[in-house]
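Field log, afternoon session.

UNIT: design team B
ACTIVITY: writing a sequence onto a fixed backbone
BACKBONE:
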């Protein structure tokens, strides 16, 4: 039997991997991207710390996608 807590971790893990794949396709790597296992019921994703050039690249990709 799968618990709600285990389901949350699975959902967060799937979301993390989907985001990682999308960012990689856009040429953006967030080195600290991962699931937050401290509160699995919240399904939180840790985006982590990035260098300023990576943050600027991410902003550029988002802006281009919104245009």
């Amino acid at each position: 039997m799968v618990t709600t807590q285990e389901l949350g971790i699975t959902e967060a893990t799937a979301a993390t991997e989907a985001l990682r794949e999308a960012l990689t396709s856009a040429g953006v790597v967030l080195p600290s991207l991962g699931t937050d296992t401290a509160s699995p019921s919240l399904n939180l994703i840790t985006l982590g710390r990035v260098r300023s050039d990576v943050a600027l690249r991410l902003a550029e990709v988002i802006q281009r996608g919104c245009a």
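LOG NOTE: The beta strands are 34-35, 45-46.
NEXT ACTIVITY: expression trials, pending approval
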